[in-house]
Amino acid sequence: MFKSSTSLAVFAFFVAMHASQLLAEEAVVSADRVAPLLDGIVSHLEQTGMVVLGVLIILVLASISTWSIFCAKWFSLRRVEKQTANFVENFWESRSLNDLNKRLSDFSPSPTREIFRVGYAELVRTSQIKTTEQSSTLATTIAIDNIGRSLHKTRIVERRDMESLIPLLAIGASACPFIGLFGTVWGIMGAFEGIAMTGDASLAAVAPGISEALVATAFGLAAAIPAAVGYNLLVNKIRGVLTNAESFSADFLNIIERYLITEKTAPPAGTTTS
Q: What is the pTM of this model?
């Protein structure tokens, strides 16, 4: 038994050594393939004019900014979706609005949480107005209008917060192709100037300058396409969050209206969510 275990250990050792050698050889081959590519890119950048090089740097920075904004907003909106769903679930499971309001600090910030906070605070304030008004019907109408306007304003504020930085993606998607086109036009102008000075209009003389100029267009498209796709994905996700917030706001307002119409003497603390 001991000899068998020893043999297996020796065999596993030699297999691991052989695998490590193969991996090392593969890494060397990959490095040998990448090195000429990097050298070619560096040599092309050294031969590129200052204007085209500046355009490429701008486009690279725009691409980095685009990806940073998209990733940050995507994960932020996913978190908001989960927090919204969690608050709505607790809203319907709570015994009363007052009970949920006492536990409001236990929930993470979300559009629905903010809508509830503002709406409940306005409900308390308008309940005081209702007791001082001579006409109960007029007081109820005023209260419902005030709460409705407060909820609408809250939705606008939440939408503005979620849409922050999103216009930068739209700007990048529309501007980057033209920035790259500017670099291409400038590079082609330089290529024609070279033809005028040397008098050589052969393809071998013109191709290097034009190919370097076309790189700017490629960089522009590489920066614009992710920006356009990211913009549409984020706008669609924001639209979904706002739809849920508007649905919650309508349900919340319906509950408040039923309370204001039917509960003439009960305090707001006893308002239920059913």
A: 0.72
